[in-house]
Amino acid sequence: MPTAGPSLGAFNRLRLDIAYDGTDFAGWAVQPGQRTVQGVLQESLAAVLRTPVALTVAGRTDSGVHALGQVAHCDVPAALWEAVASSLLRRLAGVLPADVRVLRVGVVPAEFDARFAALWRRYEYRISDRPAGVDPLRRHIVLDHRRALDVALMAEAAARLVGLHDFVAFCRRREGATTTRCVQSFTVAREGAEIVVRIQADAFCHSMVRSLVGSLIAVGEGLRAPEWPASLLTAAERANTVRVAGPEGLTLVEVGYPPDSELAARSLQTRARR
User: Fold this and answer.
1) Three-class DSSP category at 18
2) How confident is the model at residue 274 (pLDDT cuts 50, 70, 90)?
3) Pick from 79, 95, 233: nearest CA to 171
4) How far apart are CA 55 and CA 73, in angstroms?
5) Most buried pick, 21, 110, 128, 178, via CB within 10 A?
6) pLDDT of 48-70, one tens digit each?
7) Sign of torsion, CA 172 64 273 121?
8) CA-based Rg of the chain, rounded to a whole angstrom?
9) Average pLDDT over residues 114-135
10) What is the pLDDT of residues 59-108, one digit of tens each?
11) Contact in structure between 104 and 16 (CB atoms under 8 Å)
């Protein structure tokens, strides 16, 4: 449970830890006429709290992408939080659809910002390369590839991408935003019937993880050399030779934050870069 913190005047800042199956969602962010995770959560929170709620999220996942450790924050009247604190999780479970859950909720310092205070995000991408196809009970969270992949070559290619780089070749550029990111770890391993790609970075730009995985798949198939993905880091624009892997294999696993005393400084640092 997040530690208690000071109120924002008459408001408390709440941290929500969230999990969802992204299969039937058009991504995180609210979109007119679309079913989104943010939309469903805000509607459910408003129904329980009887007041509008605006969520700020650690990472805006795309359509079909899942989460086990998504983080969001919102501000609610302090008196209201006091009245619902002991029952909020249970009441939310009663109104939320089965494909999204709030796992934990609690008061955090006013300086906590789910997006800008984050130190890192960790994703997993799961692939099945079995000729028989993916386990039917896991088809919504594992990419069904059905062509043999060389995991050792994929791991070699991933290791070359660790560090601070401009990942514009693997991103959809957003006006005024940087595509420079620091990849802190990037590994590939076979675990039972699945290949698991794990990547952690300070942040990710739009489509970055799925594009990186797509480049690793090309290496694993023998279509590209292990040096190829890293060679694209010198590009000045998105590389049209990179395939974007499907969303079903991707899950946001965890988001890391600094100690409470460092939250404000971290937010200022991140805002300056992004």
Assistant:
1) strand
2) low
3) 233
4) 6
5) 128
6) 999 999 999 999 999 999 999 99
7) negative
8) 20
9) 97
10) 999 999 999 999 999 999 999 999 999 999 999 999 999 999 999 999 99
11) yes
